[in-house]
Write a structure and sequence with these properties.
The complex is a heterodimer of chains A (about 110) and B (about 110). With about 110 residues, chain A is mostly beta strands. Helices cover about 0% and strands about 55% of the residues of chain A. Chain A is globular. With about 110 residues, chain B is mainly β. In chain B, strands 2, 5, 6, 10, 11 and 12 form a six-stranded mixed beta sheet that branches. The chains are: A mainly beta (about 110), B mainly beta (about 110). At the A-B interface, strand 5, strand 9 and strand 10 of A face strand 5, strand 6, strand 10 and strand 11 of B.
Chain lengths: ~110, ~110
């Protein structure tokens, strides 16, 4: 069974569209995260949720809206997509916020905005 | 501000060569340290982690790292690399807040 699963794996869309990426973890972890990896491979945290509560929001444009219906799911909705949103988005989870027993990453969603 | 820096951006080695990738962190208080590997087109995998105790940490695939508190460093080492070690390597750190990554080091190993 996949521990942290993201869908879709690839997403190609036009500028201005709205899209969602889904993430689910079956590890029983309390905290989930979204990271963005840009074209230079730099990884930056976007959001973290602990038990459905938003903990970290790293100056991400408000076109990005995370939603956590329960502690096993953290979805990312993006409105009015821009070219600069093209990146690989990784979902991750951890047992407790900041505890890297550690962080388990999903396989990533490669978003291409054209 | 909390930060992680990796000074080697691109390392090219021949098989059987020894590897050392540098990592320095800037954190106040207790810090947990990690090395992750990302093989081409794949997700991040944990190589090893340090929380406390023995500063020499052994990980998977023959990798090890040494935590040197006085130098704020957590360098990754492998005595003899293989072609299959070609990948991107990320150092990362966290305390009770979030996991912060370095900029990554691209390792290319030639047969």
């Amino acid at each position: 069974d996949t521990a942290v699963s993201q869908t879709p794996k690839y997403l190609v869309t036009q500028m201005g569209n709205d899209k969602s990426i889904k993430c689910e973890q079956n590890l029983g972890h309390d905290t989930m995260y979204w990271y963005k990896q840009d074209s230079k491979k730099f990884l930056k945290i976007m959001f973290s949720y602990n038990n459905k509560e938003l903990i970290i929001n790293e100056t991400v444009p408000n076109r990005f809206s995370p939603k956590s219906p329960d502690k096993a799911h953290l979805n990312l909705h993006i409105n009015s997509l821009e070219l600069g949103d093209s990146a690989v988005y990784f979902c991750a989870s951890s047992r407790r916020e900041g505890q890297g027993g550690g962080y388990t990453f999903g396989s990533g969603t490669r978003l291409t905005v054209v | 501000a909390q930060s992680v820096s990796q000074h080697n951006h691109h390392v090219i080695l021949s098989e059987a060569a020894s590897l050392e990738l540098g990592c320095n962190y800037s954190y106040g208080g207790t810090v947990n340290l990690f090395w992750y590997v990302q093989y081409p087109g794949q997700h991040l995998q944990l190589l090893l982690k340090y929380f406390s105790g023995d500063p020499l940490v052994k990980g998977i695939k023959g990798f090890e790292a040494e935590f040197i508190k006085s130098k704020f460093s957590f360098n990754l080492r492998k005595p003899s690399v293989q072609w299959s070690d070609t990948a991107e390597y990320f150092c990362a750190a966290s305390n009770t807040d979030k996991l912060i990554f370095g900029t990554g080091t691209r390792l290319q190993v030639f047969p």
